[in-house]
Amino acid sequence: ASNKKLLILPGDGIGPEVMREVRRVIDWMGRRRAVSFDIDEGIVGGASIDAQGTPITDETVAKAKAADAVLFGSVGGPKWDSLPFEQRPELGILRLRKDLGLFANLRPALVMDPLVEASSLKADIVRGVDIMVVRESTGGVYFGEPRGVETLPDGKRRGFDTDVYHEDEIARVARVAFDLARKRRNKVTSVEKANVMQSGRLWRAVVGEIQKAEYPDVQLENMYADNCAMQLCSRPKQFDVILGSNLFGDVLSDLAAALTGSLGMLPSATLGAVDPTTGKRHALYEPIHGSAPDIAGKGIANPLAQILSFAMLLRWSFGMEEDAVLLESAVGKVLAGGLRTADIMQQGMARVGTSVMGEAVVREL
Amino acid sequence: ASNKKLLILPGDGIGPEVMREVRRVIDWMGRRRAVSFDIDEGIVGGASIDAQGTPITDETVAKAKAADAVLFGSVGGPKWDSLPFEQRPELGILRLRKDLGLFANLRPALVMDPLVEASSLKADIVRGVDIMVVRESTGGVYFGEPRGVETLPDGKRRGFDTDVYHEDEIARVARVAFDLARKRRNKVTSVEKANVMQSGRLWRAVVGEIQKAEYPDVQLENMYADNCAMQLCSRPKQFDVILGSNLFGDVLSDLAAALTGSLGMLPSATLGAVDPTTGKRHALYEPIHGSAPDIAGKGIANPLAQILSFAMLLRWSFGMEEDAVLLESAVGKVLAGGLRTADIMQQGMARVGTSVMGEAVVREL
Ligand SMILES: CC(C)[C@H](C(=O)O)[C@@H](O)C(=O)O
Ligand SMILES: CC(C)[C@H](C(=O)O)[C@@H](O)C(=O)O
């Protein structure tokens, strides 16, 4: 049994179809392990714009705040591309991050052995890659003010954004990175452009101070963002934990994900601060992949990233380590058994669709 | 003969040693092709800090303005890492870009056939890759005001930068990209984060307007920066010209360079506006690779990027197409002959140092 409150937000594109496979897993858990959750489901992104005129309603944000964890699909698609800036589907996820204070976005890039060949990189370059990108996710240029597009007296336009960090914002996400490194290979690579950006200069200083004062046992390396992109591509195994701002974390985590060659496999978590009285923290789990409008509705999307996001949720928000391991090893067995969705298809394997993949995971459970 | 004015700025790290090999080429041109230049040499970056207390003097900037072209090495190194922000070696190149109005930084990422195996990516993914990144280089977050690190009343620090673009800045660099695309494979991928940044939203709008009004024959694709990083890693052949802001262009051009696996081979050019009366434009040429302090002084650096930067200079600033082709094909022959510096070494090839490589190029000329 479990009275944990779970909010499910499938979103747009392939979101609903991959989320269906998680539902299958949840049903199995209810039947076989007698675990049940207090589940609510909501709409977000383009789906919410269509039905409610806004990418996310206050009511949905309130539900997310009340939940023990949020399982998120993905948002966006060409249908909503021409909407004004203030009405984009992306605001659904951006508002959740901001309003729930989800400042630490954890994006693992893991190369699973059976999928080494799915990478565009050579096998010996990527075999064994296991990187955790920790991206700051409630600050920086994503939310900094002032921002806008203004028309100057001569009729010409000027667009501007502010990339800004307070030292406390840097310190708390740095601690998340150092804590994770301690449970991994004890190394943090902190990424910025301290050679050209003032916020980057502060970033480097604060991360260095936190390491010195609180994590002298963890190795800290500072790297410029351009060099990090280069190194990820040429020697990815050098990295353990990569720490970056909202913007650099966005680009570099996508790159790290891409080099595994199995984007459709990668989950992520976004965590808030631990409440000192309840010991709880807000958390949202979502696949790294987006809404993939080009393949939505075709039944060919890979549901494993969404399923593995749910496994992360079980482990980190619900304290159900055993069930998380069970689910992750079921996914491992399905892959070892040769089933592949189109995105990770290789010669000699059996190509299957979304629901066959989901069923196979349940069968292995 | 030629009375073209050339300013040579070797800079720091491996800069001086790779520049020496260009001098060898210039000497050969004087002896064999009776071409001579009006050459001046200056110091910049850490070398200038050490000798003159500033990363670049006004006098050197004035010389650069007076020159028909600048051949630049690279700046920076651990020796100067702890200097205050206002005194970094990087300011040498940043000030040259800004003061000479060098707004279009052209960074080709070309996979040469004999070097396909040097890439960390699989041969079939990178064979034939030929990308030109056009990076805006006098605006954006590199120069935007306000910027700074301030101490708040409670003693805490806050660092901030402004990413800002005027529509004219976007338009002029977009035109450079579209013009280049017309001479290539007719496609421009314009990169931003229009889904989260206001300057990105203006960027996308203006690039679209220029394409519609002036380049309807060129294909324009808009792509988010995170997705572009991903696509560069997984399917680089889809790209022809990539257009981005100063910051996105910095990161994505380094990534594009890295995936070729032969960073030590890649030249770049940074161009100013054409003066309507003289028909001239300021231009600076430099290798993509940095000062590589770890290998500086060892005589093992690859001089080919610096030599190929000089070839670009001959072609674009001095109108010496024939000499440029001669030099580029000499480089091709040296590689075909099996010589390799350490960075591009492969089995079965002959490993050589900086000066042997430079001599070999002159021998092929
Ligand atoms: C959907 C969008 C706002 C988003 C971002 O840029 O953060 C996406 O790229 C991501 O990484 O989750
Ligand atoms: C040296 C430095 C200022 C620079 C930059 O960020 O522009 C470098 O990375 C480059 O790309 O030329």
TrEMBL record, chains A, B:
Binding locations of NAD(+): 77-90, 290-302
Example GO molecular function: 3-isopropylmalate dehydrogenase activity
Keyword NAD among UniProt keywords: yes
Boundaries of every Isopropylmalate dehydrogenase-like domain copy: 5-361
Annotated Mg(2+) binding sites: 226, 250, 254
Entry EC no(s): 1.1.1.85
Single GO BP term: L-leucine biosynthetic process
Record's subcellular location: Cytoplasm
Coiled coil: none
Cofactor(s) it depends on: Mn(2+); Mg(2+)
Pathway annotation: Amino-acid biosynthesis; L-leucine biosynthesis; L-leucine from 3-methyl-2-oxobutanoate: step 3/4
Keyword line: Amino-acid biosynthesis, Branched-chain amino acid biosynthesis, Cytoplasm, Leucine biosynthesis, Magnesium, Manganese, Metal-binding, NAD, Oxidoreductase
Top-level division of the source organism's lineage: Bacteria
Pfam families, per the entry: Iso_dh (PF00180)
Function: Catalyzes the oxidation of 3-carboxy-2-hydroxy-4-methylpentanoate (3-isopropylmalate) to 3-carboxy-4-methyl-2-oxopentanoate. The product decarboxylates to 4-methyl-2 oxopentanoate.
Database matches in NCBIfam families: leuB (TIGR00169)
UniProt subunit comment: Homodimer.
Protein name: 3-isopropylmalate dehydrogenase
Species of origin: Neoroseomonas marina
Lineage, broadest ranks: Bacteria, Pseudomonadati, Pseudomonadota, Alphaproteobacteria, Acetobacterales
